[in-house]
Amino acid sequence: MYGCSDDEIAVIRDGKLEGFSPADKALLEMADAMADTPSNVSDELYAELRQHFSEDQLIELAASAALENYRARHNRVFDVGSDGLYRKGLRFKHH
Length: 95
Description:
about 100 residues
């Protein structure tokens, strides 16, 4: 399955990451740190990320998180609302 389940989204929103794998937990913490102002990924978090991902993988993952952060902030300037793509219980067809 791609993406997160409704239950996973709920626990992420609550900041309860204990049920995720160490790699996923580190990525979620990185995305959260990148969304802070100013953004700051600590040396400790970076060391944890490097235990699970190569430098090339981290570059791509950080770029994806940065792009989503940029889009979210850009949308707020122009009061762009949700496009409704996420709805609880919605399932996507997998190829």
